[in-house]
Amino acid sequence: MVFLNPAGSKNHESDRWDHKKMKIVPNYFKIAITLLVFMAIFVYASVYATKLKTNSWWSDDYWFSLLIPLILAPTVLFFFFIPQWIIVNEEEFMIKQLLRSPRSIRYDQIKAYCYRNLIFMIQPVTGLALQIIYGAFSRNIWKSFSETIETKCPDKKVNILDWSFPIDK
């Protein structure tokens, strides 16, 4: 958890807040290693199942085609589900995703939020829903952020089974 002083900040986007704020940064190494481990387990299980069923190993073409998901999976995760940073203060939070402009959301503009597997989803009143893989953040830091959302918006938490797009609450 990093606390920033806006007076000393060189980033004009974050200068608009007048008091301390919390900046949350993901651990890309942690999520990359986790993803590689899960992919390795899946590949091993697939290769072994093929060997048991057909009594032959994968051909070179199978191994070469495996490059597609090995490249696409991390790319999709890092670009769409893991923000570069989240800055939290008393009235709002700002989120910056790769290749996108920073987005500021006030707590009173949150229509709904929920957890689903490893994804934390937030639906603001306007704009697209945010989907964040919270496993990319340390547990303590993510707990602090999620407790802030739960404290500021206690009546906005929904069950994933009740979640529909758009939310009509």
Structure description:
This protein folds into two domains: 2-26 and 82-162, PH-domain like, CATH 2.30.29; 28-79, no CATH class. The chain starts with a strand and ends in a 17-residue tail after the last helix. By secondary structure, the chain is of the alpha+beta class. Helix 1 (28-54) packs antiparallel against helix 3 (67-81). It has helices at 28-54, 60-65, 67-81, 139-152, and strands at 2-4, 21-24, 85-88, 92-96, 103-106, 110-116, 119-124, 130-133. It is built from four helices and eight strands. The strands form two sheets. It has a five-stranded antiparallel sheet, with helices on one face. A three-stranded antiparallel sheet has the order 6-7-8. 37% of the residues lie in helices and 22% in strands. Residues 1-19 have low confidence and may be disordered. The radius of gyration is 20 Å and the shape is elongated.
